[in-house]
From TrEMBL:
<dbReference type="GO" id="GO:0044206">
    <property type="term" value="P:UMP salvage"/>
</dbReference>
<keyword id="KW-0547">Nucleotide-binding</keyword>
<keyword id="KW-0460">Magnesium</keyword>
<feature type="binding site">
    <location>
        <begin position="201"/>
        <end position="203"/>
    </location>
    <ligand>
        <name>uracil</name>
    </ligand>
</feature>
<feature type="binding site">
    <location>
        <position position="106"/>
    </location>
    <ligand>
        <name>5-phospho-alpha-D-ribose 1-diphosphate</name>
    </ligand>
</feature>
<keyword id="KW-0808">Transferase</keyword>
<dbReference type="GO" id="GO:0005737">
    <property type="term" value="C:cytoplasm"/>
</dbReference>
<feature type="binding site">
    <location>
        <position position="81"/>
    </location>
    <ligand>
        <name>5-phospho-alpha-D-ribose 1-diphosphate</name>
    </ligand>
</feature>
<feature type="domain" description="Phosphoribosyltransferase">
    <location>
        <begin position="8"/>
        <end position="210"/>
    </location>
</feature>
<keyword id="KW-0328">Glycosyltransferase</keyword>
<protein>
    <recommendedName>
        <fullName>Uracil phosphoribosyltransferase</fullName>
        <ecNumber>2.4.2.9</ecNumber>
    </recommendedName>
</protein>
<dbReference type="InterPro" id="IPR005765">
    <property type="entry name" value="UPRT"/>
</dbReference>
<keyword id="KW-0342">GTP-binding</keyword>
<dbReference type="InterPro" id="IPR000836">
    <property type="entry name" value="PRTase_dom"/>
</dbReference>
<dbReference type="InterPro" id="IPR034332">
    <property type="entry name" value="Upp_B"/>
</dbReference>
<dbReference type="GO" id="GO:0006223">
    <property type="term" value="P:uracil salvage"/>
</dbReference>
<comment type="similarity">
    <text>Belongs to the UPRTase family.</text>
</comment>
Length: 211
């Protein structure tokens, strides 16, 4: 399981995750925590973004300064609806990234993913893709989203979540072993409804105050 799996154990990430998990955390606080934690996770996920050098003038001298070589070439794909929380954080760091959306819901009895929306930029062949969904539970939605996204031939794909269940990671890696997964934590497992235990509840409901 350890291959292609990065657990981001930074103290700030772990602290913010514990605040998110708390039942008493308000919707507003949960939302801002998800933005903040996503920015911290994005720092690790984007570690290998290429740089190029351009000549700039500081108030003191001219220099060759490093800038992102391909910030516009990144496409962040949010698995709706909870992926939106991660997307907001990442776009604060990389505002020129392009954005895609995949709408998938889990049929409540079978937990089978059903696609109801799909929109990504036309030129994904030229783009590195970061797929985001805060919770990797059974892995079914992530697998279905990546199956579909692979049809658009992106240059590369990474998957970013905040919490994962061991079952979900195993399942995802059976289908997409080459895709790196980044997460802040791996929890105990799933309950009979496919929720992560101890988890943080329904990320979409907590993010949007529905329920
Ligand atoms: N989706 C969630 O939002 N929470 C879980 O625990 C599992 C899937």
């Amino acid at each position: 399981m350890a291959e292609n799996l990065t657990i981001i154990e930074h103290p700030l990430v772990q602290h913010k995750l514990s605040l998110m998990r708390r039942e008493t955390t308000s919707t507003a606080k949960f939302r801002s925590l998800m933005t903040e934690i996503s920015m911290l996770l994005a720092y690790e996920v984007t570690r290998d973004l290429p740089l190029r050098y351009e000549t700039i003038q500081t108030p003191m001298a001219e220099m060759e300064a490093p800038v992102l070589a391909a910030d516009k070439k990144l496409v962040v794909v949010s698995i709706m609806r909870a992926g939106q929380g991660i997307l907001d954080g990442i776009l604060q760091l990389i505002p020129s990234a392009r954005v895609g959306h995949v709408g998938i819901y889990r049929e409540p009895h079978s937990l089978v993913p059903i696609e109801y929306y799909f929109k990504v930029p036309d030129d994904t062949e030229e783009r590195d893709m970061l797929v985001v969904d805060p919770m990797m539970a059974t892995g079914n939605s992530a697998i279905a989203a990546v199956d579909r996204l692979k049809q658009t031939n992106p240059k590369s794909i990474k998957f970013l979540c905040i919490l994962a269940a061991p079952e979900g990671i195993r399942h995802f890696q059976e289908h997409h072993p080459e895709i790196p997964i980044y997460t802040a934590a791996i929890d105990q497992g799933l309950d009979e409804h496919g929720y992560i235990i101890p988890g943080l509840g329904d990320a979409g409901d907590r993010l949007f105050g529905t329920k």
